[in-house]
Amino acid sequence: MTSSQFLSFTTFAYLGASILYLAGVTFRTTKALRAASWVGLAAAVANGAGILLRWKESYDLGYGHAPLSNLYESLVFGAWCIMLIYLVLEKKTGHRSLGIVPSLIAFLAMAYASFSPDVSSKIQPLLPALKSNWLIAHVVTCFLGYAAFAISFGISGLYLWQRRKGLSGNPAGPLKLLPDVRELEEYNYQMILFGFLWLSVGIITGSVWANSAWGSYWSWDPKETWSLITWLIYAAVLHARAVRGWQGPRVAWLSMLGFCSVLFTYFGVNFLLSGLHSYATK
Amino acid sequence: MSPSTGTSSSSLSTLWQKLGSLRFTLLLFFILTFGCVLGTLFPQGVGERQLLSQFSPSTVKWITTLQLHDLYHSLWFQALLGLLSLNLIVCTLQRLPKTVALLQHREEFLDPRKLSKFSLSCTLRVPSGLPHARQAVEQVVRSKVGPLNQLHAPQDSFAFVVERGRWTRYMVYVVHLSVLIIFFGALLGSLFGFKGMMNVAEGETNNRVFLSRGHRQVVLPFQVRCDDFHVSYYDTGAPEEFRSDLVILEDGREVLRRSIRVNDPLTYKGVTFYQASYGAILKEAKVQFTDKESGETITLDLAFREPVPFADSGRMMELVDFAEDLSGFGKAVAVVTYREGEQPKGSWILVERPDFHGNRVDRYAVKVLDLNQAHYTGLQVKRDPGVVIVITGFILLLAGLLTTFYTQHRKIFIWAQATNPGTTLILAARSSKKSLAFEREFQHLCERIREHLTNPRKES
Ligand code: HEM
Question: Complex ipTM above 0.90?
Fold first, then answer.
């Protein structure tokens, strides 16, 4: 089988998983939720296999590089990170209902990578500027951070929803299968810590790499600046928790804003602003 | 003390409180974030002329007043970073003594009434006697948490404290210190370093660096020679590698010889050379001139920018410029001719289109017979004495984040009293992370102790 076959299976499996998660929560059937987890796991395995195969295929073509070098590859890798981190979270918390948003985002990333005319899935040779082991360290760490923030975005949404229901009476309806507000807040905080740590590692590896490749550890390139913006927003989230009157919903909103900044760092900068990190120009 | 000094000292102390407050931190974070966003919306590092081509004159006036076109180096942005550092320092000065005091405080004995008011506490009434209870507590707690510290307690009772990860309370200070270290390193770099570009043609030597900021030049105390510049391509036509073979010379003597590539720079005496760009230059051209009137032909070897006498006419010919690709017409050389007391005349001569009717200077048709070209390598040259400090800050930051996020300071208090028959135990706990996970861990611990003391089969 080829990597693209694995990856198209992955796309549909993520779709299946997100439908099952949603169905499980709406119709309150744990059976659907359990199925969702298994489909999600299968999709993640296929996603990983697809990435490894693509790596091998790039060697067969004579280019030989880790599949992290263009928009397509990074979307595929991003989807994988989201699902892997989510599955670990699910295992640790035992709450399958948290999977709605992560599986949906993983599906959207894969679908965009596969079907958008802006994204080329061709294996291309590496530009000289990207030929470095730092590329792997930088991209992997940034994506672990982004993925954790994506999951935190989902949890924040559930938190705000659950809280509104909680305030307007007893949490009835679909929300019964969701964790309570206090748990959601804690998982959200865990994800933000994880994301913040990896985003910091990502920014630092990028910076050390830039220093060794171009002689400047920080040059205010738009992508760099936007990753700093994201970092500042999450730093604000961490500190906001310690200020009275800033806990709860405000932290959740701020963390959702942080994820918007992640999206802008990733897509907006590529498509709207120019700079060094121009992987989406073709 | 007069009332006025009283108010001013109290307003000073509120100012001090505000300077170190987290609300001020949040405010600074938001303004900085907003500033960074602005900086990505306006073109950075461009001149006024370029701005005028994009924006209306009144907008340009705003942009230049607020320095939005060089935002990250503007005074107000740097002032914000300064305020953030101040905020951090003041905050640390306010909190660190409290943390130290908290950690130095050691209980001499426990007060059961206080313990039962902790948000994490549990009371167990068990049938076992005091010695057995004590043995069970010691056994379970030691295996689950760590070694116990016994406190003074009256007869018929005992008290223990278990504490883990006291040091982790300091790690958030390490995170904050690392931020200050990074700022300090960046400041050092901007005060005592430089960054610029230097072009060296193949076979030539250079020691002048044009700085990227402020139209200045730095003359290096040694020379750089480029022996060869080489580009290789993939089958697709995309560049695969850029390489310059460099030699460092001191007083004309070779001291170092190395090739640099993108991602593989050379550092000598604190100055680092990075492969940044390249280009082609012209060294010499063989040019044929045909007099349109007499049909007479003269061929000259013109070295770049060196005037050559044109036969005996008293006229000079000079190659003044070279273009790798002139508006899509391929290579072109600019030839100029002049005579004493005359305006120079000149034109671009298209090398690859010898029949082009514009290939003429004065009354001569010009044809380029041969080009002797070379490459130059574009080196980015940098000296930054702050890098080591910044990288130290990075490492500290990561170590600090990892430990603040994933370790915690936990303290568990255990008090027990014989209440014949049986024993009453009170357990209470506190942790630096008020997490659910710790709450569960604590409940689990209580549960284990209760099981141990109520389930006789486990007594052995
Ligand atoms: C870019 C700069 C900063 C970074 C990266 C940073 C990072 C952090 C981190 C990672 C934590 C731990 C949060 C947690 O465990 O939830 C923290 C906590 C804290 N920070 Fe900062 N910080 C910065 C600036 C500041 C400033 C300027 C202040 C000044 C007041 C400050 C005050 C605090 C305080 C008081 C805490 C403890 C909060 C608590 O009790 O939970 N930080 N900081």
Answer: yes
